[in-house]
Amino acid sequence: MMKQLVLVLAIWPLFSSLQLLKQVGSNRCSNNSYAINVMLMNYSDFPSSTNSLKSAVKQALERVRKEFQMTGENVTVDATFHPFNSSLYVSQGCRTSTCEGVELIKTIYDSGTLGCAVIGPACTYATYQMVSLETILSLPLISVGSFGLSCDYKVNLTRLLTPARKLNQFFYYFWRHSGLPFKTTTWESVYIYKRIDTSEPCLWYMNALDAGITEFSEKLKFKDILRTPELLRKTVQSPNRKSNVIIMCGSPEDVRTDLGMEKVDNDIVIILIDLFNNTYFKKNISADYMHHVLVLTLPPTNYSYNTVIRDYIEMEDNSLMEDDFLAGYFNAVLLFGHGLKKFVVSQSPVSPFSLITEFRNTTFEGVMGPVTLDEFGDIDTNLTVLYTSQTANYFKPLLYFNTQSNETYEATNSPDFIWKNHRLPSDTPGTGPHVLTIAVFTLTGIVILVLIISLLILRKYRRDNERRWKKWSHIPPEEILPLETSETSHVSLKIDEDKRRDTTQRLRQGKYDKKVVILKDLKNSDGNFSEKQKMELNKLLQIDYYNLTKFYGTVKIDTMIFGVIEYCERGSLRDVLNDKISYPDGTFMDWEFKISVMYDIAKGMSYLHSSKTEVHGRLKSTNCVVDNRMVVKITDFGCNSILPPRKDLWTAPEHLRHADVSQKGDVYSYGIIAQEIILRRETFYTGHCRDYREKLYRVESGKGVKPFRPDLTLDTVGERQIEVYTLVKSCWEEDPEKRPDFKKIESTLAKIFSNFHGQTNESYMDTLIRRLQLYSRNLEHLVEERTELYKAERDRADRLNFMLLPRPVVKSLKETGLVEPELFEEVTIYFSDIVGFTTLCKYSTPMEVVDMLNDIYKNFDHILDHHDVYKVETIGDAYMVVSGLPKRNGNRHAVDISMMALDILSFMGTFELRHLPGLPVWIRIGIHSGPCAAGVVGIKMPRYCLFGDTVNTASRMESTGLPLRIHVNGSTINILKRTDCQFQYEERGETYLKGRGTEITYWLTGTEDKKYNLPTPPSVENQQRLQDDLAEMITNSLQKRENEGSKAQELSRCDSKSCSNSLDNFMWRLEAYRLRGKRKHLFKHPFYCLTCYQQIKPLFTVTLKLLDDSIRTHAA
């Protein structure tokens, strides 16, 4: 960071004079005259000389001019060459080229020949300074180089040689690739060898691979840097290395120099980055040290050149073809001509800024063939990976990588590598692909898996066979285990009390075969079943269907026989229909869900009717249960000889008349359940008949044209519902033969249900998943709602706790459950009480005393809110406050208590009692400072208590004080003197304090900077007569109130005899109401006493409500 700051300061004079691009443009970029500025930086980092670069640019310019002449355009295109001569320092190459580009562009700008575009520089440092910070140009900058990541994504920069970003893309995809014939594993580790003496391209290529922000580096699990040849040699031979793959940049000569003649491990793969080297394609003999090396380079220059372009390649030894930098400068001019030509031909105005856009997402004819630039102005190419052929002993292509599409193309399927099995090794030592080992383990695993699957299938077949032929027998009682505590507790999302009746929970529960079960009383005391009953039990044992609960057998516990039946967590369907909070209509129990519930019941009954059990006999909504996946299952079926059916609202009319069971009777029961589901009302809902017995009577005797049935009108239903309503009505036809069977009901509902989603047949799993998703959404909504209520209650509880105990104490109790007692070196304690409180109580009713204290102390509490104090307690008329604990506040505790005392005393000067207006209320105040201990005492109704002599002394200061005076100890005065606040006080003199002896005390009278309206204290001479004066004043006030009273006020004076008669009369009227149910008796006579009526009114209201509820329940 410091280096960057120094750099900016050094070149700031250049920036300040470069107001370049707000007004770029000159006479060299218009009127058919266009100029290019070419920066010539003669560095040893690049193989091309200044003269070679000039020659290449001139030849390219001649080519551009010829193209304009061929189209008949009179256009002049020139180039100005600017060699670099720094006035600041002598350049030593690209790594010291930070300021050169900025200084050179300033020189060009000052000369007024900025032109249309700039070619160069090639150094990353120089280019970065030109396109960064405040020097961003508004004319295109074409660079043959500038490889670093710092030059990526610049608005006006175009790069004609492969940047580091493109190489990073190659390595990212190559490392991840595992589908190549010669690379079957992904790589996740690498060593990066960074040579000290390296070229400009290699420096930035390796820095980009080392950078942690690239996608390639982020996906690696291991990466390490090798910086010396010694480390490189040690790594390729070490058996404890972390990776088999090494990336380096340079030439084959660099590999020989740095690796030496050391023997290389057979699993080592070295990837050599050598892009700008054309010698690999001349079939030269590959050296032995290159056998473990893959070379990453550019493709060979085998393009069939345009004859016109070939005429301009006149440099000695075809150096333009051999030198990528020379070709890059040549292509830079061709790119400029390519973009300029579009504007000239279309007669559009040319500006440097518009040329920038033309240098993006374009393809033009370069000296070696087509050149493609991406959306950021960087060149795209086909990178080539070469390997040493073991048979031919020279380099051959292994694969090609297109940087534009990020796709890999194989050059060969079976390369003759030095690595075994013609495959690249794994990047991790010791984990390479061993085909035979893998094959052995794979086959072994397959055989074991097949054996396991076969055993499971065989076991299931045997168990099914055993179950199919299993005969009934009692389950041993010891196999029925009690439930654990965690299994019997049920979490409810309701904060209010759940008052619904849960019939499932009233049944006995247990655990059998690690599953929770229901124990149903079979009303059999000895367990000796008849043959017919045993046959029924055997049939139940063979039933296993997902819409029917599983029957496990019977068990004898004590003298009772129970059926052991599968348990469903959500209770009966009746409970779900009643619970409109957990299963609301709008978000959960919609029409689709109701049909799916009816469909579940129909499927279960269809299976049951086709089984050996044949009939249910007791089908009702309480015998349909819901499991935790919201699947409805039918329970309590069969056992009709053990549990004969009863007459209820689900019973078919023919079975009400003659007790029996039948499949058509089950269909009728299904129709009643369907009406419950659709309307979500009570069983057999009718708007005009609510009596249970009347409904049974009317169904049983309801023969005729229109028998008595539940309400289900077709008048207001839509198209989707009408088909279901019609189906349900057909189920409760009076003639059993007209009722459909469950096969037809199931197929009809399946068709209706599939129409919701446009499917001809929806699978059970689709239905289940949709149902769970619906329940999950409803549950999320319910949890959010209850969480908000919980947070509100928690916050309210916290506020209440903070009112009862100090905030730090509450937090400690919540976190640890205890509060450690604490010693405070210095606090200030305030005590006050009401003078003549006993006398006031004598002449006041209890309610008036409570109102008086509440009025005074509520105002005291409001005053406390403006000071850093803590209210400890109030006992009767005593009021205790402390400052300096539990939160220490330096010397402020004495200041806050003193100011609070002055505010309280000022308030008492204006306070009046409501029941004794005009009567003054006097208080005594005592203040003392000193050490104190504090802690929470007790478990039930805990209190934060203070202990120590300071508490006793503060109490003595109050009791020895005088009315409407603030009595302060010398310790408090000394603390006040140490503060900046200037308090006013008077010396009282020596005062005897019990337990401490005689001390000099003070009266606190105010402050210098604030005027308090304090009441005038009574004189000292009248202290002995205060109690008598107070009693006399109270008597006078009461006498005045009696004299000024009206008739209503006279009624408020209590006549004990009248009130007694009135209360007796009230109790008599309540008893009359209870017996006769006539409320008019309650209001026959008024109360004689207004005060007593106001006191009896709450009792009267509550009692009347209870009696109303009792009489209404009795009548029902």
Keywords:
eight-stranded mixed β-sheet; alpha/beta; disordered N terminus; Rossmann fold; Phosphorylase Kinase, domain 1; 1116 residues; 35 helices; 32 strands; 6 domains
N-to-C terminal Cα separation, in Å? 88 Å
- Principal-axis shape equals flat
Number of DSSP-assigned strands: 32
Instruction: Return the domain count.
Output: 6
Q: Sketch the major β-sheet.
A: 8 strands, mixed
What is the CATH-assigned architecture of the largest domain? Orthogonal Bundle
Membrane topology: Single-pass type I membrane protein
Subcellular location: Cell membrane; Endoplasmic reticulum membrane
GO molecular function, one term: ATP binding
EC number: 4.6.1.2
Q: Concise description?
A:
The chain has 1116 residues and is α/β, with parallel strands linked by helices. Helix content is 41%, strand content 17%. Strand 16 (395-402) and strand 17 (407-410) form a beta hairpin.
What secondary-structure arrangement, pairings included, does this model have?
Elements: H1 2-16, E1 29-30, E2 33-40, H2 50-70, E3 76-83, H3 100-110, E4 117-119, H4 124-131, E5 141-143, E6 157-159, H5 164-176, E7 189-193, H6 200-210, H7 215-218, E8 222-226, H8 229-237, E9 245-249, H9 252-259, E10 269-273, E11 293-297, H10 307-311, H11 319-322, H12 324-345, H13 352-358, E12 362-365, E13 370-373, E14 379-380, E15 382-388, E16 395-402, E17 407-410, H14 435-468, E18 474-475, H15 485-488, H16 503-506, E19 508-512, E20 515-521, H17 531-541, E21 551-557, E22 560-566, H18 573-578, H19 591-610, E23 624-626, E24 632-634, H20 653-657, H21 663-679, H22 692-700, H23 719-731, H24 742-755, H25 764-804, H26 807-816, E25 822-834, H27 837-842, H28 846-864, E26 870-875, E27 878-883, H29 892-908, E28 923-937, E29 943-947, H30 949-959, E30 965-969, H31 970-977, E31 983-993, E32 997-1007, H32 1026-1043, H33 1047-1052, H34 1056-1076, H35 1090-1115
Helix pairs in contact: 2-12, 3-4, 5-6, 19-21, 19-24, 21-23, 23-24, 28-29, 34-35
